[in-house]
Amino acid sequence: MKVTAEKNEKVANMIFASIYPLYLNRLKKNGRTKEELNQVIKWLTGFDQEALQALIDDKATFRTFFQKAKIHPNAHLIKGVVCGYRIEEIEDEFELYKQCRRMEKLIDELARGRKMEKILREEKK
What we know:
Layout lengths: L4 H8 L3 H14 L4 H12 L3 H9 L4 H7 L12 E2 L2 E2 L8 H17 L4 H4 L6
Helix pairs in contact: 2-6, 3-6
């Protein structure tokens, strides 16, 4: 599927704090913890617990969330399909949408029971 400017804008204006509990509920149903969710988000974005909580408390949009993030240098290793979109095929002009899908891919892998060492990608030496 192709990302459109409208789709990108819709995601950019969504409130992270309204989606976070949905991520958490999904993970808890699959035997994972809030700490694991936060670890995955921290790896991707560079946020510590205080910064993450502040963004939730401030009801930050995904636009603000990803503007403040320091995306992990290995984020480009996150590949695959999420919600019908192949992450590596999302155009650079829709970077925010791509980052959002990358985060969802990590959360999806966590929910499916993948080991944390595999989720938090490392460059192969």
